[in-house]
Amino acid sequence: MEHRQHPRFPVQFRSSFSSANIVSGAGNLTDLSIRGCCVSSPTAVKPGTTLQLRVDVSDDEPPIQVTQAVVRWCRDRSFGLEFASLTPDEWARLQHVVKELELEPYQRAASSDEAV
């Protein structure tokens, strides 16, 4: 059984990716952690490929730009990425998004309790 260092959260974010002269495409980010993600896409990529990734987390903000993400696995029109390099500003934005995802179930539960 695989044990992850960082929790992953189910999401539905649009994304696009590219690698110099190798591949480019778009997909849906289906889970996210502070260190990586899973992307569903019809575009085939190979493990070991380094990609630039853009993640649309909100219509109100520009996409988060991951400078380097390494493809760790591929199967059934999905692939896993490990984030290798982000600028400090993008890193802070990613941390903020993941922190919000961590809090979300508790916020929903608190809202339900308040409604009672």
Written description of the protein model:
The protein is α+β, with helices and mostly antiparallel strands and 116 residues long. It has one helix at residues 88-115, and strands at residues 9-19, 23-32, 36-40, 50-56, 64-75, 78-85. The chain has a 6-stranded antiparallel barrel with strand order 1-2-3-6-5-4. A hairpin with a 2-residue loop joins strand 5 (64-75) and strand 6. The chain starts with 8 loop residues before the first strand and ends with a helix. Mean pLDDT is 87; it is low at 108-116.
In short:
This protein is of the alpha+beta class and 116 residues long.
From the structure above, extract its key features.
single chain, 1 helix, alpha+beta, 116 residues, 46% strand, disordered C terminus, six-stranded antiparallel barrel
End-to-end distance, in Å? 40 Å
Shape: globular
Helix share of residues?
10-25%
The helix/strand series, from N terminus to C terminus, equals EEEEEEH
Overall pLDDT score: 87
Topology:
Layout: E1 9-19, E2 23-32, E3 36-40, E4 50-56, E5 64-75, E6 78-85, H1 88-115
Antiparallel strand pairs: 1-2, 1-4, 2-3, 3-6, 4-5, 5-6
